[in-house]
Structures are given as C-alpha cells and as structure tokens.
C-alpha cells in the first residue's frame, strides 16, 4: 500500500483512503448488476410463460373473445394487445423487446378484472400498504428478537432461555395464516377484544391518505393485526438466531481479551459482542423478508388488508394475467432490492467482506 | 448421548445403525414425543379410510351442533359430523405433503450431489438458477403457477409444490456433498474408475442418508405449509374434504364468527399445528442424534 | 508519555501463595489444574514458566488475572499484587469494578494466538482507544489526538508503522503484526506486570526473533516484571532471569536461568533440557522422557513424576515433595527443586558428534 499522510489516516470511516473506496464501490456495483440480472431473468421467464406455453393466457383470451363474443381474430388480438401491452403483429423478438421496454417504463398492461385500470395503478395503490405493514413488522420483530436473543445467550439455561425457545418453536410450527385465523377467532369472536368489522381493511372509510396524525393513527390501527401476525410468527426465529450467534461470539478469544483489557461490560456487550453477533441476523433479514412477503398473500386476505397480497390473490382467482405478471415482477423487484440493501448493510458492518470481495 | 463410531458405509452397518438409532430416539423426550405424534397422525390418516366409513350425512336439524355423544366434536354447517371429517381429513394433507417432499428431495439430491461432484459450469449454472428461484417467495410462485397450470387434483398440487421447492434443499445437499467429496472412500471409488453415477449415487448419497432424511422431513413441513395455505385460500381444488378445505369453508361460510362453530374451526387448525410440531420436534432430535456422525470429518 | 516510576517497595511485585485452580468437569467432578503454586516475582524481573502441554501453566497465567472460564475456580490460595504506590492488592478479593480497573492498568496479558484476540469489526485505533478510555485518569476524557499519539508511540516501540497499522482492521494485518500490536496494546497503560502466554508459538522464525528483540527493548525501557509461559526452552533462555518448571500442576523446580539450564536438579527438568538440541556447537545425546504426563483427574500418590523418573525410590510414591532449597539467594532467585533425591541428580550431556 502506498504511504499515507497522517491527516488522511486520522480521517473517520467514510472518507477513507482512495484505494479501498474504489474497491468498495465495485462491490456495490456488482451487487446492483446482479440484482438487475435476476429481475431480467424473472421477467423473461414470465414472458415466455405467458406467451409460449400451449394454452397460454394470451391465446386463451383471444379464443375466448372469439368464441364468446364473436370477435374476429384481429379484433380479439388487438384487444389482447392492449391488455397485455404487446403487439401481436410483430415478430416475437420485437414483442420481447417491447415487453422489456414496457417494464422499464412501468407499463405492465391493463387489468382484465378491473377494466380500464392499468396494472401499474393497481400495484401502486396496493404495494405501499404491504411494504408498510411488512416493514414495520420486520423492524419490530428484529428488534425484539435481537434483544431477546442476546439476553437468552447471556443467561443461558435460565428461565427466559427455555421459555422463549419453547414458545418460539411452537409459534414457528404454526403456519402464519392459521395464526392469523386464530387471532381473528379468539380476538374478535371469542374475547371480543378486537372489533373485526372495524379493523379490517387498510383504512377506515372516509380517511384519506395525507400527512395528518389521524391518518397515521388510523393506518396503524388497521395494520396492527397483520403486523401482530407477522411479528408473532417470526420473532422466535430471530431470537434463536441471535441467541446462537451471541453464544458463539461469547466464546471467542477477543471477548476474553476485551475483559482482560478492563473494558466495561456495556462496551463489550455493544461493540464487541453485539456488533459481531448481529451479522448472521442481517444476512438472514432478506430471506426472512421474502418469506414474510409470501405470507402476506394469506394474511392480507384474512384481514382484508388491501396490500399487494390481496391483489395477487384476487388476480390469481380471476386469472387476471396482466396483473399476475405485474405483481410477480414487482414482488421480485422488492425482494431483490431487500436482498441488495441487506448485503450492503452487511458489508458496512463487516469489513472483512469488503476485503474478500477485492480478492474474489 | 452414546458415542457413535464412524459413518457406516455398508448395508449391514446401516441396519445396525437403524437399531441404535431407535434407541437414541427414545432417549430424547421431545424427539420421542414428536415421533409418536407423527406416527399417530400418519396412522390415523392412513387407516381411517379403511375402518371409518366415509358417509357423512347432512342433517339440517343438527347445523352447528355442540359436542355430544355420537358427535364428539359437534356437527358442521350442514349437520355433518365434525370428528369424522377430522379423522378422514388428514389423508390428502399427509399424502400431498409427503409426495411433494419426496419429489423435492429426489430432485434436490440428484442435482445437488451431481453439482457438488462435477463442479464446473453445471454447478455454476445450478447455483445461479437456485439463487434466482429462491429470490421469489415460494407462495407467490406457487400461487402464480397455480393460475397458469390448473391445480385440479391433489397429485397435480404435489407435483407443482415438489417441482418448485427444491432450490433451498438442493443448496444444503450440495454443501453436504461437497464436504463428503473430500473423503477417502470417494477417492477410492474414483481410483477404481467406478464412473460418475456410481460414485455419486453409490457412495456419496448413501453416506448422506441421515442428512437427507432430516431435510426430507423439513421439506414435508414446508410442503404442508404451502398446500394447506392454498386450500385455505381456495386456490387449490376444493373437492372432497380435508383439514385445509374445512378451514376454508369455515372462513367462507362466515362460520368464523359463530361460537358454536369453534370445534369445527379449531380442530383442523389444531391437527395441522400438531402435525407440524411433531415433525419439527422429530427433526430437532434427529439433528442432535445424527450430528456427531456428520461431524466426524 | 507516562512516567515509569520505580516501584516504591523493595518487596515482590507479585506474591502467589499455595494457589490452586480447579475446573468442573462435565460429570460434576472437579479437577485441579494447578495444585499449590508458590512464587514471588520482583519488580523488573522476568520469570519463565516452562513445561509440557497440560502442566497447568496457561491456567496459572489466566488465574493470575482472574480470567478463568465459567467452569474454573480458585478453591485455595492467594495472589497479592504490590502496586507502584506501595498498596497491596488481594487480587482474588477484588470486586467487579475494582478488578476491571486493576486489569490492564497494573497487570496485562498477551495471549496465545493473537489471531483472534482482536474485534474483527473495529479498527486497531478504535480498539486502542477503547483500552485507554476504559481507564481514564481522573475525570478527564482523553482526546482523539492523545489516543492516537499514545497508540502510535507504543506501536513504534514494537517496530510497527502507526500510519499503516492504526487505521487498519485486524484481518488486514499479518499474524506477526497482530502479535506485536497485542504487545503494544498490553503496554499501553504502562503496567508493571506483564504476563505472556506463548508469545512466539505459531509464528515463523524471523517473526519470533523480532518479537524477542522487541520484548528485550521494551523491558529495558519500561522496566516491567514479566511472567512468560512457554514450552519453548530456547525463548525462555533468552528472555528469562528466572525459570520455573511445572509438572502436573505444580512447580517442581525454580531458579535462575543459569541454574536451570546449566545445573538442573529435578529429574524432569533434566529430561526437558536434554530433549532440546542446540543449533550450534557439538551435538549432545538427545533423550526424550519416557511415558506421558499423568491425567490430572487420576494422579499417582506421592510425586507425580515418579512413574517416569529415573531416580525413583520407595519414598517417592508416598511423599509429594515440597520445593527444597539448593542455593539460597535473595529476591526470589533461590534455586530449589521438589525432589527428595536432588542431591543425586546429575546433569551431563555426552557429546555425540562434534560440530
């Protein structure tokens, strides 16, 4: 490494030296390119699924239109084109490029189920609610799980340890949609704590999205049951991951050396144990996020929460292919982005990754 | 936990290991409990159709009847006996679950162990593919594919679930196979020029048998999660009666809000949760038992 | 730069009396890894603790700073540290906060295998800073500049380039560098007692040389007492004023380096010396000690070395000998051996081949 002047060396993290910075940036670049690649593959896969399979939705639609409404092929094809946002007269490779272009522009076609509504509109009105509920749930779940896990590790074999392990594993065994159902059954029906009629849906009638306290309060009120379900089904996993990770770190040499150096317990717990134990957790966040998003399709249906899950559900039932296509792509993009973010966060937290990538 | 020696490589050693295995299982309370639960539910699902007649007459006078003699769990929205539905309702769930898990396991084992052994571009390609498939949430993928391919029979359901959920499993198998690849018996087999198929499926895979078993059971829990979910949502064929369909009809029929319908709603939920719990307890203790063997590298 | 005050006392800086360290084993039993160790260490003196693996030397080292794992305990004995201001500290009785303050400031330890002694996610400068900030001088918090300068000074003392090392993460440094950083960090607060556990093991010859030289320089400059634990007799010969050999949890011979290396009187020590060939000069006969060290949970009665000893007689199996003085000297430098037949023990090495 070239000699570095003392002033640069005393700089904080962030405005570090030029050479490592370039390397770090290329790691970011590589992850981004990879994310785009995955989205592209899924988009292409869907394209071929929709167009090329025998009995594929486009042909089925065209035939239905011809058979049921007596349209000519051209008219039916034109309608299909408008719906699926492609031009049947052009060769396949052109359709493919148009399709990709449409995606980049945000044009996914028109919904069959809700005529006149573009798929993009449908997604745009529903996706934020899912992101909101899943996001909040993840934050709560990870925070609680983290604290629980660390406490369990510090007091191994204690009451908390056994209690949480048992409860966590039991909750984990119950599928999240069944848990949601049980919450409705017990909470609303049996115990009358929750007013199901009121709490379902994403907002109470009459409340408009705007930056007001009433809106925020109402949004949280309605999202509380989905969030509760997500949290209950995942918090056990986080706690157990954190516990095993913390237990492992506690056995590391540098923790003992830190004690020998006379560092305070608090400092050791946060910067020495915590910062290292949290790494596997961060690595898992993206995969768990994907799982929760998948579970949203059930949970939102049960609580009638109008997020992307319900959209997918309804469109699948009604065979609204443009919407299905769009939702699949959006979900993929969301999960890929979540993966990307968590990788980036991980590389910030663990300097060893940045150097490894340099050699890779 | 008793000390186990080396990983068995012969059939006779495997049989001896099996006996020892059951002995170990009874030592762990959770494991044994899990095993009992799973065995009971499997037994009930398999044998009930033989012994219990499937006729379940509707009885308009007995709609949402409470538990009483002759109807231990009460009656449902059309007066049919709930208990009978519970007892007979596990069949599809168990069948589809295990079938899907079997399909997944076979695919994952074949691809995973071949990828680990051959490495090179095949391995690279498989890793990329699994990465991409793993990105999409499983349920979303299932729901979408369920829309494109009609799920008109439990077998179709099992097929689709089986063909979609192998990536995660494949990764684990591949990792395990990679570590086994370096062992001497593989070297020996290679030197004997036994050919790829023989080495992979004759040597490596049998030595992962316990690992594969554990992952198979985990795959069953995943499959059950997926298939029951699809039934509850009504995305899977609603013909016949199984636990998932019971929950679905309770949901659709608005029975959720009737206190009298509680047994009807809770019983299938309890059965599913119990089955999943039993399977998970089984895997936990299996992992404990079999880990010493896996770790003797 | 912290002043190196000479200690205000003529007495020992560290007094260990009848120290026992025990571990709880898996099946509830306890095994003593250290079975009654006595020694005094005087200021600016260096003592080498030598012995085979499992003889208890590492446990003893850890015990001195109360760094034993959860399963370890001190059922008997005392450790007294006599500080630079003349205060006498009962180390075993220190409460948590006092222990925390005492550690590193008065007595520090350099651990075996510096590979994993650093927090992988913090830069070296931050870890140095942690150490300094944990031991503030009164109410004043040290500034960043101060921390940098004190750390840089210590790094230069171990022959490392501060600008290269301080902003780095531990994984960016080689093993030898990390070991030296650990030494630098241990002297950061200018302790008067430094314990080193196998400081040169797992390092290549050139790095070992560098570390030995560095330790020489540091001792000359800062005048601290040193306990270093090693199975490497050559290093011990270089760095030690005094040597104590340990066997099965007890010190069985102690004396000056000269005593031990040129005139050992315990059969075990003799065996140890004879097992090491010199690099230059004539090649003497090499002999390894037959047998293996005893299991600490199953010790023979009487002298623990009796089963392997060439000088064994009747009374050796009934009496576990105490350290018997051979040559009395001051300041802990008495040559003593725990053997009833030390007078008969002869150390001679026949030359097998001429250089």
Poorly predicted segments of chain C: 1-8
Order of helices and strands of chain C: EEEHEEHEHHHHEHEHEEHHEEEE
Strand order of the largest sheet of chain C: 6-7-8-3-9-10-13-12
Q: The biggest beta sheet of chain C, please?
A: 8 strands, mixed
Number of beta strands of chain A = 0
**Gyration radius over CA of chain C:** 21 Å
What do the pLDDT scores of chain C average to? 85
| Biggest sheet details of chain A | none
Low-confidence blocks of residues of chain A: 1-16
Count every helix of chain C, treating DSSP H or I runs of 4 or more residues as helices: 10
Number of helices of chain A: 15
Structural class of chain A comes to mainly alpha
Query: What's the number of extended β-strand segments of chain C?
Result: 14
Beta-strand content of chain C: 15-25%
Amount of helix of chain A: over 70%
**Helix percentage of chain C:** 25-40%
Mean pLDDT of chain A: 78
Shape of chain C: globular
Topology:
The complex is a heterotrimer of chains A (360), B (297) and C (355).
Chain A: H1 6-9, H2 18-52, H3 57-69, H4 73-84, H5 92-105, H6 119-154, H7 159-173, H8 176-190, H9 196-199, H10 213-250, H11 253-260, H12 265-303, H13 308-317, H14 321-349, H15 351-359
Chain B: H1 11-27, H2 29-51, H3 82-118, H4 120-135, H5 138-148, H6 154-164, H7 166-181, H8 184-191, H9 196-207, H10 209-233, H11 243-252, H12 262-294
Chain C: E1 14-24, E2 30-41, E3 46-50, H1 57-64, E4 72-82, E5 88-90, H2 96-102, E6 107-110, H3 124-133, H4 144-157, H5 162-165, H6 175-186, E7 193-197, H7 205-222, E8 225-230, H8 233-239, E9 242-247, E10 250-256, H9 257-262, H10 267-274, E11 283-284, E12 324-327, E13 335-337, E14 351-353
Parallel strand pairs in C: 3-8, 3-9, 6-7, 7-8
Antiparallel strand pairs in C: 1-2, 1-4, 4-5, 9-10, 10-13, 11-14, 12-13
